[in-house]
Amino acid sequence: MRIEGLHEIASRFDGMLIDQFGVIHDGQTLYPGTLRVLSELKALGIPVAVMTNSGKRAQANRERLVKMGVPREHFVDAISSGEVAFSGLTAKRAFLIGKDGEDYGFDDIDFVSDPRDAEIILILGSNAPKTSLEDYRRRLEGVTLPALCCNPDKLMLTPQGLLPAPGAIAALYDEMGGQVTWIGKPYPGIYREAARLIGNPQRILCIGDSAEHDVAGGRAAGFSTLLVLQGVSAGHDPATLSPQPDYVMDSFQW
């Protein structure tokens, strides 16, 4: 069902799980309709959890949203794949794959420079375009450690356009014979945690910009789905996307 704005269906739901990158903002600034949507949902008493396939802990994502101009009272909480991964991590020494200079908040983990000294590979971010997939292939050649991919997205929005995201690096390692465990959308753990944050209401709507992650994950969790034709789905014909969402709208607006 195609809709013009969220107001057309909002009353059908008791809670919403909203993707961060590609729906609320583009990585740099909020989309024009974001504040109106979140304000209206708060006025209606519909709780919102913000979801993101980010290797960073939840606190970093909460702070980012507020810094970008989202009032803290407009969302119950933020949940990241990094937070879900950290909460279940037992390893103490890890080889990090991430963006140069980023702090992912994994404070209790000893990051080592040589994978031979590690218990696990943590794929938390991507250093593209500085580090290419071929660079990662060379770096991971001969490595046999289990890997935890804390962001299954294969593409990420950047000022240079769409570039390989952590999920692409994890897929490469998997193709090379590595053992990869995936955490984040569309896998179930992050949906269970997000639903818990908003009180596990019966009627939940998942809003995202990726059929592969947001729609597939929401459907697998038993929730309704809305695809916004922004972010990675900008310019796409919704009829060609798979899986198909319950609802489609051109932009995130009320």
What would you say this structure looks like, in words?
By secondary structure, the chain is an alpha/beta fold. It has 2 domains: 6-82 and 191-249, Rossmann fold, CATH 3.40.50.1000; 89-182, HAD superfamily/HAD-like (Rossmann fold). The chain has helices spanning 34-43, 58-67, 81-87, 133-140, 166-175, 188-197, 211-220; strands at residues 15-19, 48-52, 77-80, 93-97, 110-111, 120-123, 147-149, 155-158, 161-164, 180-182, 204-208, 224-228, 247-249. It has a 6-stranded parallel β-sheet, with helices on both faces. The longest helix has 10 residues, at 34-43. The model has no long low-confidence stretch (mean pLDDT 95).
Secondary structure layout:
Layout: E1 15-19, H1 34-43, E2 48-52, H2 58-67, E3 77-80, H3 81-87, E4 93-97, E5 110-111, E6 120-123, H4 133-140, E7 147-149, E8 155-158, E9 161-164, H5 166-175, E10 180-182, H6 188-197, E11 204-208, H7 211-220, E12 224-228, E13 247-249
Parallel strand pairs: 1-2, 1-11, 2-3, 4-5, 4-6, 6-7, 7-10, 11-12, 12-13
Antiparallel strand pairs: 8-9
